[in-house]
Recover the amino acids of this structure.
């Protein structure tokens, strides 16, 4: 049974977490895009799900969502819920999806970004009595677009170095980072 | 894709976890947190944790604000695209020369001007206030907020109104010891009691997701001019009476409607906010007087009493035809 290179996995998780958290706190608030702001926590959750998937991705998604919730002024737990589900769906196959065709990976993320942003907007419409169309077209859509744009460099770098991060499922049921 | 999945998952119990159990656990946890957050609000345990979190992360916001400050000018590029290229080049060269020589002095002069303007407005309106610096915008897309560098340690608390030299910009909605979150007047959850300065027509100024402001609940039989000044009415006891907010840009009068549809352009430019004043307390003169309240009530009652009259007027052409 081959072992998992846990150190590489942990190191990558920690580096991406620090980068995304710092960007979420420092850059996202100051660079609005047509009323939307990049959701770096969604990017982190998606990267974790696409790289490692499974339970690892789900946990990363929940924690990333919780971080976003504490940063924002909206009810806590909403983004955590959405990113948990998003990470589960994106990481369902438990393998490195960033090793797939780049355009497919980006398309999957784009759909996820739009779904998460729209669901978040709709939930806020219910909770905070905001305008439905305004929330959807003036908040969710720009957020999804700027988030996808910010996701591209991460995905590009990670997919280019995919041989270093490839997860290969094995008989023992674990994954390995080469 | 399918191959990878088949290899990776397998049908035996040795397949890697897809996270189904973790998904259920964290969904339940998220919903519990969400429920507790909605029920507890900013005063609950989660609100306190969020306040602590805000304190811990303030340095990162400050750094981000400093790093991104030079990029604020990028927005002007789009508006300059319509200008003549030669003109732009000349202006650019001239601007570079001036910037080289004056950048430091200009910065200090601007700071002095802003502080002087704040002091002036503080003196003009006799405001009990504390000056604060804007350190960050909203971290999410769903709220129009800013974060300022003063919190409960400086005596700030939830509900205090905030303004800059040009007028009202919002209200504090959460505080931590070292920072506070200010909900801007543009936020769709923002509502401010306001009135037209010229004819004292009372209404409620509401924000929207589009970034526009509307003055609602102003009676349709009142005359409101374009460019009329909108000020705070002082009703509700949160905002001092008479603070400037903006000017009327559009007035729509729909037949049969009880109220006018009024669009307002705020004086404050929240994109370029740097220093603000937090109003910490109101004097008796700044609160709405009994006369103001009676006047607002009278306007409202008048609007209600006019309902049959408006309906009658709307129906009269049909009756004439009949």
């Amino acid at each position: 049974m081959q072992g998992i290179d846990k150190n590489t996995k942990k190191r990558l998780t920690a580096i991406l977490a620090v980068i995304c958290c710092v960007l979420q706190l420092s850059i996202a608030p100051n660079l609005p895009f047509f009323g939307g702001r990049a959701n770096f926590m969604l990017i982190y959750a998606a990267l974790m799900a696409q790289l490692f998937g499974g339970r690892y991705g789900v946990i990363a998604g929940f924690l990333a969502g919780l971080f976003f919730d504490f940063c924002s002024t909206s009810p806590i737990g909403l983004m955590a819920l959405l990113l948990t589900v998003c990470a589960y769906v994106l990481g369902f196959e438990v393998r490195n999806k960033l090793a797939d065709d780049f355009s497919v990976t980006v398309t999957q993320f784009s759909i996820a970004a739009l779904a998460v942003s729209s669901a978040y907007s709709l939930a806020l419409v219910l909770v905070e009595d905001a305008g439905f169309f305004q929330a959807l077209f003036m908040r969710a859509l720009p957020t999804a677009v700027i988030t996808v744009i910010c996701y591209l460099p991460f995905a590009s770098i990670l997919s280019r170095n995919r041989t270093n991060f490839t997860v290969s499922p094995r008989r023992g049921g674990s994954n390995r980072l080469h | 894709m399918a191959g990878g999945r088949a290899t990776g998952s397998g049908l035996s119990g040795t397949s890697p976890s897809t996270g189904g159990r973790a998904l259920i656990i964290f969904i339940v946890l998220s919903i519990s947190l969400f429920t507790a957050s909605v029920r507890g609000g900013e005063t609950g345990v989660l609100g306190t944790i969020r306040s602590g979190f805000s304190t811990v992360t303030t340095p990162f916001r400050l750094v981000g604000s400093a790093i991104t400050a030079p990029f604020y000018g990028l927005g002007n590029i789009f508006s300059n695209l319509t200008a003549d290229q030669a003109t732009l080049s000349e202006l650019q060269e001239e601007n570079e020369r001036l910037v080289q020589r004056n950048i430091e002095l200009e910065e200090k002069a601007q700071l002095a001007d802003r502080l002087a303007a704040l002091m002036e407005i503080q003196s003009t309106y006799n405001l009990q206030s504390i000056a604060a610096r804007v350190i960050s915008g909203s971290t999410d897309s769903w709220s129009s907020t800013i974060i300022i560098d003063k919190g409960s340690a400086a005596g700030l608390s939830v509900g205090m109104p905030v303004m800059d030299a040009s007028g009202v910009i919002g209200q504090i909605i959460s505080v931590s010891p070292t920072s506070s979150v200010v909900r801007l007047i543009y936020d769709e959850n923002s509502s401010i009691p306001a009135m037209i300065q010229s004819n004292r027509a009372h209404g409620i100024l509401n924000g929207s997701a589009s970034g526009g402001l509307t003055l609602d609940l102003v009676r349709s039989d009142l005359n409101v001019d374009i460019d009329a000044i909108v000020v705070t009415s002082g009703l509700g006891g949160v905002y001092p009476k008479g603070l400037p907010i903006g000017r009327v840009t559009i007035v729509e009068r729909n037949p049969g409607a009880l109220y006018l549809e009024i669009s307002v352009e705020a004086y404050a430019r929240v994109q370029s906010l740097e220093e603000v004043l937090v109003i910490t307390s109101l004097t008796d003169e700044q609160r709405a007087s009994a006369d103001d309240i009676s006047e607002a009530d009278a306007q409202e009652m008048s609007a209600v009493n006019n309902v049959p009259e408006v309906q009658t007027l709307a129906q009269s052409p049909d009756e004439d035809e009949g």
Remarks:
- The domain at 191-268+283-304 of chain B is CATH 2.40.10.350 (Thrombin, subunit H).
- Chain B touches chain A through 64 residues (CB under 8 Å).
